Every structure is written in structure tokens, then in C-alpha cells.
Amino acid sequence: MTGRLLWLLVLLVPSVAGAQRLIHAGANWAALERGPGRCEAVGRSELVVPKGGIQPRAAFAFSRDGRRRGELHLILSRPARPGADALLQVGDASFLLFTRGRSAWSRGAAQERAILAAIRQATEMRVRAQGVGGRVSDRYLLAGAPTAIDAAALGCA
Question: From what superkingdom does this record's organism come (predicted)?
């Protein structure tokens, strides 16, 4: 089993709320159905965290009710400093995200559409923020991201 697919198994462990279903897996990203009407495209950062740590990851959420159409949620490698924003760099495009603790989120539908479009043109993305105890700089390879995003969107269409 390749190292890339091994991390997918970690993401596929059933959550407390219920079982997950794999919709698509490829390269560095996967698409999951997280429950009735909730799908995500997920990827992990290049940083591999030691056992017991929190793995930085990115998820684009979609829902059948239309409330989520590519909402980005990132788990950061360390908590962001209170009041700090995060900067997401996708290729040549930059996006300001809001943070709370170890999480960063997109700021709404227009920004989410722009991030999704940028991902289709880029090979990597990086999120940076002022963190508690140091800087956050998490890098994600985007091979397979467009396909996983499309699969998650279709899975909850």
C-alpha cells in the first residue's frame, strides 16, 4: 500500500456521528460522503504529524440543500493567534481566510468559487498565519484535487 493511500485510511475512519462512504480516491485527495447529503473533498498537508498529533488538512464541503457549495475548512498545523487572519496562496491567487483556533475558513460563496477556479490552474496551495508559538505555513499538493472536488460536488448534487 502506498504512503499516499495510507493517509486516506486515517481520514476514512468512521466519525462519531456515523459512517463515511468513499466516493473517489486519487493522488493526494479523496471525496467522501460524510452523512446524508454531506460530502467533502479532502486532502492532507505535506507535513506528516507524529502519532497522536493533529494532521493539517483541507476540506471542501458540499451539501444537497445547497448551503455549502465548496466551503473551505482547513485544520492548521498549530492554533492561529486570536484575531489573526490566514492567507491562502493558490498559484498566483491569494485569499484572506478567517481563523479560530486550529481552523481557517473561506469567507463566502464568491471567494469559494474563486478558490475552486484557482485550484484547477495550480499545482499547490499554501496557507500562512501568525500562530500561537510561531508561524503557520502548511503546503498542499493539488494533484487529484479537481477530480475529488468534482466527485464530492456530484455526490451531493
Answer: Bacteria
